[in-house]
Amino acid sequence: MVQVCLNGSRGAADGWMVPVSPGALADAAVEAVAAGATDVHLHPKTPCGHDTLSPRVLAVTLEAIRARVPVPIGVTTGAWAEPDPAARLERIRTWTTLPDHASVNWHEPGAEEVATALLDRGVGVEAGIWSGTEGAARFAVSPLRSKVLRVLAEVTDPAADTAEASARALLSDLGNTHGRPLLLHGENDGTWPVLRLAGRLGLATRIGLEDTLLLPTGERALSNAQLVTEGLAQYRAAQRSP
Question: What PANTHER family does the annotation carry (predicted)?
Fold first, then answer.
């Protein structure tokens, strides 16, 4: 599985290629799926370009993408989109159009309550376990650990020369994922080393403009689809390496 992460917290300031509007996100999803992505992750945006959990924005965004691609679509529930845990729960409970799955950062306050609200509504939960946080320890004792859709091992080390070691440390901290699938990915300059490690280990991964704006050569990526194409090539080459 290769998930495309279309935009993340990035916006217009990061370049014209970062999709923000529902239409642009749908266009980017179509191209990324054609390039080989089998799952979509995105951050719905307000007209001003801010991440939001607004039911109205979520509905318009999901409907635009679902009309054009057949793969599962997931969204963020990151605390930056709604810092107050109670307000975050209320947003989720009033969603009128549901994503197939949503990521929940396990180190954030209220993570288990958010995950429970999603599960109660039939939305799959991606348990986001960030390196350098207490996420792995909290997930290890969570009563929800066997109920999530998958575990996201999210390597926040942005350095190319240390990201692989950080990824291995995170995987060690995670240990037993209680039979749940594991998706491993990095960010910024650590994106490509961690993606190649995922290939060598046979783990699911993700790639897209949320994680990096650059190709492995250091050139600026022109689209999510270009990153997916290159990501699949790098992943498959890593699978064949000793």
Answer: 3-KETO-5-AMINOHEXANOATE CLEAVAGE ENZYME-RELATED, 3-KETO-5-AMINOHEXANOATE CLEAVAGE PROTEIN
What distances in angstroms separate CA 58 from CA 27, 37, 63, 100, one per listed residue? 16, 21, 8, 12
Spell out the alpha helix ranges (H) of the chain.
Answer: 22-35, 55-66, 85-93, 111-120, 135-140, 163-174, 191-201, 224-240
Q: Where are the domains of the chain?
A: 2-240
Q: Residue 75 pairs with which residues in a beta bridge?
A: 42, 102
Tokens of 56: 């109205």
CATH architecture, range 2-240: Alpha-Beta Barrel (3.20)
Q: Note the pLDDT tens digit of each residue in 122-137.
A: 999 999 999 999 999 9
| Backbone torsions φ then ψ of 102, nearest 5 degrees | -145, 140
* Residue 178: band (very low, low, confident or very high) from pLDDT cuts 50, 70, 90: confident
Global pTM reads 0.96
How many angstroms separate the CA atoms of 183 and 198, rounded? Answer: 8
